[in-house]
Write a structure and sequence with these properties.
2 domains; alpha/beta; 15 strands; Enolase-like, domain 1; eight-stranded mixed barrel; TIM Barrel; three-stranded antiparallel β-sheet
Length: about 425
């Protein structure tokens, strides 16, 4: 039958940081091909599914993925060749059971996800559909708001800011096309702003600028200047979002160290910082404002400013249904960052999004710092009507590929296309 898997192949390719990652080709019995490449993160949560690396210091500094490639072409292929791609849940359940470990560390979450996504692409091609339509059908009509990381810091850009991402969010546009233009224009204005101040315009892992700044707040001031210089009204037309990646700042004594400013903050002081910034700047979203195990801090932050700021769990939640359920019960966030490679299969990713939406949360489809030209997350954002997406800056092809893919989907939807805009933050009642 034409829906049966006939051949499975994998290869070691390079991601945007020049490190190896895995790409999977899944061919059906009628010759239809599905292909997927898996990204890799630099700032990774402790509870993420395990990315299998070779550890061979003679190849790529130990970062090779030949073991994951062998898992695909060997054990996984043996288990699923001949299986149908029509039932994604059944296929993914087979992959999960085959690995047999809680964090998918035996065969590797990177191997499993490559196969899972390649199967979805093959099924879409079999049916003559775009992936977004294959997964979402006629209900998939919403183009996401791009959260554009135009100033990089933390692990994405050493010697810049302590906090990892400073993003602009074009909430006031009426179409995705116009939103993307606004973001690109602010990005260009920021370049000029940095040049005028004699600051570096080198770029970090995710394509944003990485100037050496005296304080973290200086990044917000620069974004405000850039938004206005591009001709937009801060807050009304273009808002600001932050990914603090606070786990990276946590010390053994439970305090948070801001190296750029030479100071260390208790949990309460960090919550105070976020509240102060949220009242001073048009901040609509704060991601990982506290460390991945600081549940009390997350509850405090959400209670304090969750009514007017989106509180996004990344390292806290790692796209895991179990951790999302705990956060919902505790009131420890109000939005989910979605990274398929944190959990390892498409089905688990979709289940996480469904759970978040059922709780009235927002969801943000996200790239990783080590990316490829694969654009699957753009399709997933539309398929699930997620309303938000992070791909990095409007710069570097591995980031722009996702943004451009959304332009094509907007054209495909035609008059049915809806740009999420400010409504994507509906869980923030006072935004």
């Amino acid at each position: 039958m034409s829906d049966r898997i006939a051949h499975l192949h994998a290869r070691e390719i390079l991601d945007s940081r020049g490190n190896p990652t895995i790409e999977v080709d899944l061919t059906l019995s009628n010759g239809v091909l599905g292909r997927a490449a898996v990204p890799s993160g630099a700032s990774t949560g402790a509870y993420e599914a395990i990315e299998l690396r070779d550890g061979d210091g003679l190849r790529y500094g130990g970062k090779g993925v030949l073991g994951a490639v062998s898992a695909v072409t060997g054990e996984i292929a043996t288990a699923i060749i001949g299986a149908s791609v029509r039932d994604q849940r059944a296929l993914d359940s087979t992959l999960i059971a085959l690995d047999g470990t809680p964090a998918k560390g035996r065969l590797g979450a990177n191997a499993l996800l490559g196969v899972s996504l390649a199967a979805a692409h093959a099924r879409a091609a079999l049916h003559g559909h775009e992936l977004w339509y294959e997964l979402g059908g006629d209900a998939a009509v919403k183009l996401p708001v791009p959260l554009l990381n135009i100033l990089n810091g933390g692990k994405h850009a050493e010697h810049s800011t302590d906090f990892q991402e400073f993003m602009v969010v074009p909430v006031g546009a009426t179409t995705y096309r116009d939103a993307l233009r606004a973001g690109a224009e602010v990005f260009a204005a920021l370049r000029t702003c940095l040049q005028d101040r004699g600051l570096a315009t080198g770029q970090g892992d995710e394509g944003g600028f990485a100037p050496s700044l005296p304080t973290n707040e200086a990044a917000l001031d620069l974004l405000m200047v850039a938004i206005e210089a591009a001709g937009y009204r801060p807050g009304d037309e273009v808002a600001i979002a932050i990914d603090a990646a606070a786990t990276e700042l946590l010390q053994s004594d439970g305090r948070y160290h801001l190296e750029r400013e030479g100071r260390t903050l208790e949990r309460g002081a960090l919550v105070d910082l976020w509240a102060t910034w949220a009242s001073k700047y048009p901040i609509i979203s704060i991601e990982d404002g506290l460390a991945e195990d600081d549940w009390s801090g997350w509850e405090e932050l959400t209670a304090r400013i969750g009514g007017k700021v989106q509180i996004v769990g990344d390292d806290l939640l790692v796209t895991s249904v179990h951790r999302i359920e705990r956060a919902i019960d505790a009131g420890a966030a109000n939005a989910l960052l979605v990274k398929p490679n944190q959990i390892g299969t498409l089905t688990e990713t979709l289940d996480a999004i469904s759970l978040a939406h059922g709780a009235g949360w927002a969801s943000i489809l996200s790239h990783r710092s080590g990316e490829t030209e694969d654009t699957t997350i753009a399709d997933l954002a539309v398929a699930t009507n997620a309303g938000q997406i992070k791909t990095g800056a409007p710069s570097r092809s591995e980031r722009v590929a996702k943004l451009n893919r959304l332009l094509r989907i907007e054209e495909q939807l035609g008059s049915r296309a809806i740009y999420a805009g400010r409504a994507a933050f509906s869980q923030v009642t006072h935004a």
